[in-house]
Amino acid sequence: MPTKLIIFLILNFAALGLGGLFTSGEVTGEWYQTLNKAPWTPPGWVFGAAWTSIMVCFAIYMAYAWQNATNKNTLIALFIIQWVLNVSWNPLFLKYQQVAAGLIVIVSLTLLVSYLFFTQYQQLKLKSLLLLPYVLWMIIATSLNAYIFLKN
């Protein structure tokens, strides 16, 4: 399991790094700063702390899921789709200012992560709780994106 954990940590943090690379400076840019944002939008530092914690928990979760998976191809396919959706939201929403497309991506990601949580629960039991921060954060992030879509 340690090898798989390291691989998932590298892949997860590569996704965060790419997201940051695509959006360098966009969060502090005029477009994002002037948006009508949800009153529950957390301060900027929360996003970094949340994503770091989420990606560590998700890597551990995936290492356990890999170990217990009856269909590893499906699990990896879902992970890859999750990875692509996760990486694609940042440039879509922040760099290209495509709020509707970002909302579609983030809803898809939320559904996929929730699907992973519920479908793997029978095999992983309490270890599934490692995915709960990701699910909850995606619900919050989706609500933030939806608010911007509706109010701007």
Q: Short summary of the structure?
A:
The protein is mainly α and 152 residues long.
Please tell me about this protein's structure.
- This protein is mostly helical and 152 residues long.
- The relative contact order is 0.15.
- The protein has a single domain (2-151), classed as Ferritin (Up-down Bundle), CATH 1.20.1260.100.
- The chain has six helices and no strands.
- The protein has helices at residues 2-22, 30-33, 44-68, 72-95, 99-124, 132-151.
- The mean pLDDT is 95.
Write the layout of secondary structure elements.
Elements: H1 2-22, H2 30-33, H3 44-68, H4 72-95, H5 99-124, H6 132-151
Helix pairs in contact: 1-3, 1-4, 4-5, 5-6
The named CATH superfamily: TspO/MBR protein
What gap, in angstroms, lies between the N and C termini?
46 Å
Total of DSSP H or I helical runs spanning 4+ residues:
6
How many individual β-strands? 0
Form type: elongated
What's the level 1 CATH class? Mainly Alpha
CATH architecture: Up-down Bundle
The low-confidence parts are none
Helix content: over 70%
Encode the helix/strand succession as letters.
HHHHHH
Strand content: under 5%
- Write down the domain tally: 1
Overall pLDDT metric? 95
Let me know the largest β-sheet.
Answer: none
Secondary-structure content class:
mainly alpha
CATH topology: Ferritin
| Radius of gyration, taken over Cα atoms and rounded to an integer in Å | 16 Å
What descriptors fit this protein?
152 residues, mainly alpha, Ferritin, 6 helices, 79% helix
